[in-house]
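Structure tokens please, single chain.
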Amino acid sequence: MTSPLVFRRETHLRALKIALVVGTILAAINHGDAILEASMTTTAWVKVLLTFCVPYGVSWYSAVQAERRAPAKG
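Here you go.
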């Protein structure tokens, strides 16, 4: 059964913010030289996109799992 936690707007927004920060840092580390030299290929841009998807997915998944395991409030 799919939990409504997976659809919570707050969870997705938090994951997006984390992905933007972490993804930017990782993209700069891994592709910064190519971006600055304007020598990025289509394949490299796809890798940059995936660089942002990974921290988003990890953050979203861990937030959902933490909410599931948290004691009931009230």
